[in-house]
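Q: How do we represent a protein-ligand complex in a form that can be generated token by token?
A: Start from the inputs.
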Amino acid sequence: MKCFRCQNQDPRLFTFDQGVYYCRKCIMFSRIDANTPIKKVTLTRKKISIQPHLKYELTPKQKEASTKVCQFLQEGKDVFLYACTGAGKTEITLESICLYLSQGKKVGFAISRRQVVLEIKERLQKIFPSLQIVAVTQGYTDIWDGDLIVCTMHQLYRYPYAFDLLIMDEVDAFPYIGNDVLKEIANGSCIGQKLFLSATPDESLLKNVEIVTLFQRPHGHPLLIPKVICLPIFLQFIVLLYYLKKWKNKQSLIFVPTIQDTYTLHFLLSFFISNKAIHSQITQKDKIIEEFHQKKFQCLISTTLLERGITIPNVCVLVFKGNHSVFNVSSLIQIFGRVGRSFLDPIGKGVILCDTQNESIKNCIRQLKQMNVNA
Ligand SMILES: [Zn+2]
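Then emit the structure tokens for the protein with zinc ion bound:
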């Protein structure tokens, strides 16, 4: 017995119902009966000739990376673009997107997190104003075919055998990493080449692919190496307050390990500084992020929810209780990747507050320094 969607062959994961067995391993997407081939989805295909509208030209290093990616894809190879945070990963994919669209091929852009789907859709729409770009994620599933499809990894189940080029961003992140079902669904949706993007891949992701690296941000400045301050928890709060006062002319993102911490810190900081808290269980996430973009309050307290994808110009970043186990190396690298992305403030400011410096913090600093050396 086999499920043709998630490739499950474990008899314990099939259930007998109404005369047939169905797969329980991928039932959260929809019911698939055992040994039943998956039908190819029908999507519009037309040749589209477009050029990206960018405010700035790509830097020589970005151009070089973009050309390499395109060459490997044309040779029929899957590619991993290993680029530091803020290097302009999305921009590097544009040449490939244009190439596939000009040949009448279908392109999908899949991302782990919903917020980032909406952000990337907006960015791509500005770059390709004439293109019909659809964002497909929770709350946005009515229209799911367009010239270019941007979706969460989860939504790929709608697209069996659909994409000639499947771009997958943040493949080292939850929920994609370590999730066999999502991986098989992604494989099943791609009939051509895959282009993986990440700033923090682990070794297993770099196997059987061509690797293209880019460790220089467009402004050419090195990545921020955060300042690490070891203190007992009470003093961490005092120092946090000191920095927020010192950086009062800028906005700050504060990362905390747990949902409870977002509430505690929100309560305590409210006596001193305008702030809001955000985490996965808050329903009005988009609204809070939009208000932060509009500078309606100084400081946003978040769990690791916002560690990736979010770009706020000139934002300072603080990590509170930095030696908590939720902050692993890639998480910390992503968090400090929020800093120094703007040409006006290319270096930025970032602090880790912790009881003790653990391996994750040490490795984060080591890897950031290494990327600066290789830039
Ligand atoms: Zn299945």
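Residues 60-214 form a domain with the Rossmann fold fold (CATH 3.40.50.300). The chain is about 30% helix and 20% strand.
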